[in-house]
Write a structure and sequence with these properties.
By secondary structure, the chain is of the alpha/beta class. The chain is built from ten helices and twelve strands. Helix 3 packs parallel to helix 7.
């Protein structure tokens, strides 16, 4: 297998990364097989040093400018620019990436963070990007939409208004983000839920070239909690101690079997940050030295910035400074992996 970076295939068009389009699977599969032959790329199962690439929520809903929650960052083109670099990274390091894991934020209409779930005293829904505090709930500014409580199966045996107060209070006590009302996004079955086409193409190409099936991880379907992290929900139990969401410990165990774990995706301030935070917490409980094999692709993620309303850039930077102080590596996709700290390529 070659020791140097591979060239980027000629079919890759970075100018298309801000659009959704149909991937030509048959053509890419044939090219991937030829690519692996031409460049003597071995099967992933033969890797002496293994590397997992974890892609967090690289979906249209977050990554395309005309979709619901485009992560623009301060540049205004954040996720698009990130994904250009990420695609190039996957192609250039195809022979160094053993397996790709992809998380998919997955929602339905009736969830605690969508406008339809709550109402004010006049029956109006909160507009997108409204922050709902425990004080708002306790004073009656926002309450559960009565139609939600009447809907068959939606209450799931909970006193939802009581739960809403418990939920917002728990977020505050745990130091998590305040409950944010987001626009309807990442709706299961919709175009926003799909992977960005350019990323989908690169992941598929890797899948075939290295004979390494991509593993997809669904998160975020629980009606009663936000779920930024891949590993756990924002609030995992109700006020009675009954679980409302389960943690995926088996995935964590699988991920940490790799010699290197590389993480990229959207948004740096939310789903990536809380995923890495959960990962670090679990590593710390096992063996803190494991942190040194985690590599964060800082130029393949951007923070949430909502012009005139919210800017999570500083919060994201603070979180990532904490991660690096704990031993994780902040690296760039545009740099050769050989230059990364502690990396010896074999």
């Amino acid at each position: 297998m070659p020791d140097e970076q591979l060239p980027v295939p000629s079919f890759f068009e970075e100018t298309k990364l801000d659009k959704a389009w149909k991937v030509d699977y048959a053509a890419r599969a044939a090219e991937a097989e030829k690519w692996s032959s031409d460049y003597k790329v071995t099967l992933a199962s033969e890797d002496d040093t293994t590397a997992a690439l974890l892609l967090v929520d690289v979906q249209n809903t977050f990554c395309l400018p005309d979709h619901e929650l485009f992560v623009m960052g301060r540049s205004g083109r954040g996720a698009v620019e990130d994904n250009i670099r990420l695609c190039r990274f996957i192609y250039s390091n195809l022979h160094r990436i053993t397996k790709i894991f992809v998380s998919m934020d997955t929602h339905n209409a009736f969830q605690i963070f969508h406008p339809i779930f709550l109402v004010d005293k006049n029956g109006n829904h909160p507009p997108p990007f409204t922050e709902v505090t425990v004080e708002d709930v306790s004073t009656g500014v926002w309450r559960i939409n009565p139609r939600v409580m009447e809907g068959k199966g939606l209450a799931a045996g909970h006193d939802l208004n009581r739960f809403l107060e418990y939920y917002t209070r728990t977020l505050k006590e745990k130091g998590r983000y305040t409950l944010m009302i987001w626009p309807f996004h990442a709706m299961r079955g919709g175009i926003g839920h799909a992977l960005v086409s350019g990323i989908e193409e690169a992941v598929f190409f890797h899948n075939v070239a290295r004979c390494s099936p991509t593993r997809f991880l669904v998160k975020g379907e629980n009606r009663l909690t936000e779920n930024y992290s891949i590993f756990s929900a924002e609030v995992s139990m109700d006020e009675k101690g009954v679980p409302v969401s389960k943690q995926d410990e088996l995935f964590l165990e699988e991920l940490l079997t790799y010699d290197r774990v590389i993480i990229a995706g959207q948004a740096k301030s939310h789903c990536v940050a809380w995923t890495v935070s959960d990962l670090l917490e679990r590593i710390s409980n096992m063996d803190s030295s494991i942190a040194k094999k985690i590599f964060l692709l800082e130029d393949c993620m951007s923070p949430v910035v909502i012009p005139g309303q919210a800017d999570f850039t500083d919060a994201a930077d603070k979180a990532f400074a904490f991660f690096t102080n704990a031993g994780m590596n902040l690296v760039r996709a545009i740099d050769d992996m050989k230059s990364w700290p502690g990396v010896e390529l074999t």
